[in-house]
Design a protein that fits this description.
One of its GO terms (molecular function) is metal ion binding. Keywords: Hydrolase, Metal-binding, Zinc. Its cofactor is Zn(2+). InterPro entries: MBL_Glyoxalase_II, Metallo-B-lactamas, RibonucZ/Hydroxyglut_hydro. This protein is an alpha/beta fold. It has a single domain, classed as Metallo-beta-lactamase, Chain A (4-Layer Sandwich), CATH 3.60.15.10. Helix content is about 20%, strand content about 30%. A hairpin with an 8-residue loop joins β8 and β9.
């Protein structure tokens, strides 16, 4: 499996495209700039099979509808945020002056529990990691030693908890759960550069 990180929009939210030797790909957190996402997919001659959301904040869903409709693929997310796509106040786009309210149609698939999931030829573990938002999910691709953490854990930082549904105590419990994974696991965060669990456990000032 290969992957690319695409920082999108003014908040430089990281979308990820994971692809395999069958040319299938998953699109994770299409935050903005759908043409940039489509350009990479076209260049690599990939076939998108699903959109996965780590959570439903506005900066992670801005290009969702454009990508879903263009490729006619389903969206997967956690059930606790099932109404957020349709509600600008819940997804945060209605809370900040100067941001155009963002809405999208409901997700076709809702995860309710932690489990091992398979979409196409991609197999991964769902880890419910709330605290930044109630329905935050981290996707763990064990065979590839990859963890897509959304806005839970960053290089040298952690997710904010001052938005609706945020909770610092719950967030820290979620991060501790992530730290039980193999230390060499690469962390692909929602913003900023890639890191590893070992580096964050050793150097992240919020975890000391």
């Amino acid at each position: 499996m290969e992957w690319v990180q695409l920082p999108l929009g003014p908040m430089q939210t990281n979308a990820y495209i994971l692809y395999n030797d069958r040319q299938e790909c998953l699109v994770i957190d299409p935050g903005e700039e759908p043409e940039k996402i489509k350009k990479f997919i076209s260049k690599k001659e990939l076939k998108p099979i699903a959109i996965l959301l780590t959570h439903a904040h506005f900066d992670h869903i801005g290009a969702l509808e454009a990508i879903r409709s263009h490729y006619k693929i389903d969206v997967y997310m956690h059930i606790q945020e099932k109404s957020w796509l349709q509600d600008p106040d819940k997804n945060g786009s209605g809370l900040f002056q100067g941001i155009t309210p963002i809405t999208a149609s409901p997700a076709e698939n809702l995860w309710e529990r932690e489990e091992t999931s398979q979409i196409g030829n991609f197999r991964f573990e769902l880890m419910h990691t709330p605290g930044h938002s109630p329905g935050s999910i981290s996707f763990y691709f064990r065979e590839s030693s990859l963890l897509i953490s959304g806005d839970v854990l960053f290089q040298g930082s952690i997710g904010r908890t001052d938005l609706p549904g945020g909770d610092m105590g719950i967030l820290m419990k979620s991060i501790k759960k992530l730290l039980t994974l193999d230390a060499d696991t690469y962390v692909l965060p929602g913003h900023g550069p890639v890191t590893t669990l070992a580096d964050e456990n050793r150097q992240n000032p919020f975890l000391q």
